[in-house]
């Protein structure tokens, strides 16, 4: 390579030609490894620049990034499960934690008041504690008994609505009087159904004429 920092057009052309010849002479795998090493060194050297670039990019394209990530998670549930259950990953994390206590401490100090600050900006609505009557207590006890009885029967392999295989639960669609009759649903679908039932009940109570 004749010119390290070409200035004129001729020098640039010569530099490009020399690079092409050199790349043709070197093995492709070796060239790929060299590029990776160079990129790795450059990133380590310019860590602040890289972080600033990615932060700025995320600010501008946060919705797109989140949508892409959620879609990928939805389509690759098996990969995620396999990755989480991988023993080598767990061992690596244990070793990393032992080798980097300073980084962990720094992270904890940095994010100590993060949750509190978030709650100050986004306060939760105050919930009034419900006073349980004797009837409510009896219903809860009955529900717990039926739930324990239904747990003897095995769930299906997947959710009966969306077909996912993770976080499966029982939904007693015929009520707790029939503990052996239930649907196998994932947590997401189960919460959706209960939300709809609650909304329907609230609407019914709202439009029901008051007894005077």
List strands and helices in order, with pairings.
Layout: H1 9-25, H2 28-45, H3 47-60, H4 62-75, H5 77-84, H6 87-99, H7 101-110, H8 114-121, H9 134-150, E1 168-171, E2 183-186, H10 187-207
Antiparallel strand pairs: 1-2
Helix content: 55-70%
Structural class: mainly alpha
Count helical runs: 10
Q: How is the largest sheet built, in terms of strand order?
A: 1-2
Largest sheet: 2 strands, antiparallel
Strand proportion: under 5%
Q: Which descriptor suits the 3D outline?
A: elongated
Radius of gyration: 30 Å
**Head-to-tail CA distance between termini:** 97 Å
Strands, total number: 2
Low-confidence parts lasting 5 or more residues at pLDDT below 50? none
Average residue-wise pLDDT: 81
Listing every helix as H and every strand as E from the N terminus to the C terminus, the arrangement reads HHHHHHHHHEEH
């Amino acid at each position: 390579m004749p010119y390290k920092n070409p200035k004129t057009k001729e020098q640039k052309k010569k530099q490009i030609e020399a690079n092409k010849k050199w790349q043709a002479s070197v093995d492709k795998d070796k060239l790929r490894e060299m590029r990776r090493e160079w990129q790795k060194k450059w990133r380590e050297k310019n860590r602040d620049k890289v972080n600033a670039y990615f932060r700025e990019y995320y600010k501008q394209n946060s919705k797109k990034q989140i949508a892409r990530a959620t879609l990928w998670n939805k389509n690759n549930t098996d990969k995620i499960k396999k990755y989480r259950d991988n023993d080598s990953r767990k061992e690596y994390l244990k070793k990393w934690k032992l080798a980097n206590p300073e980084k962990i401490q720094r992270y904890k100090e940095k994010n100590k008041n993060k949750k509190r600050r978030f709650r100050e900006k986004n306060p939760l609505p105050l919930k009034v504690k419900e006073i349980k009557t004797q009837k409510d207590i009896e219903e809860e006890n009955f529900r717990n008994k039926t739930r324990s009885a239904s747990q003897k029967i095995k769930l299906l392999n997947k959710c009966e609505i969306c077909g996912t295989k993770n976080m499966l639960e029982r939904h007693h669609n015929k009520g707790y009087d029939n503990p052996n009759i239930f649907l196998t649903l994932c947590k997401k679908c189960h919460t959706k159904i209960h939300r709809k039932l609650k909304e329907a009940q609230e609407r019914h109570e709202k439009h029901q004429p008051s007894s005077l």
